Amino acid sequence: MTAVQITVLYFAKSAELAETRREVLTVPRQLTSRQLWLEIVSHHPSLRVIEQNLVLAVGEQYVSLGDEELLLEPGQEVALVPPLSGG
């Protein structure tokens, strides 16, 4: 299985929990959105608390955590976008 380096961007609560706004991770090139989430959580277990309210953006396309197959390109950006409070 081929691995690629991706850039993970953390926003709002995810940045607070991960204690970073950006990092480079090496992950399998082909995996599901759920597997990608688990790869990220393996580096930052504290992120589990926002799993139910999180949206991933892979290459500027929103994906839900599930069985959606992803084919990642080297250097691709993945953003963790937790819900924003507002009013």
UniProtKB/TrEMBL annotation:
The keyword Transcription does not apply. GO terms for biological process: Mo-molybdopterin cofactor biosynthetic process. Signal peptide: none annotated. It comes from the Eukaryota. Pathway: Cofactor biosynthesis; molybdopterin biosynthesis. One of its GO terms (molecular function) is nucleotide binding. Keywords: Molybdenum cofactor biosynthesis, Nucleotide-binding. This is Molybdopterin synthase sulfur carrier subunit-like. It comes from Petromyzon marinus. The lineage of its organism: Eukaryota, Metazoa, Chordata, Craniata, Vertebrata.
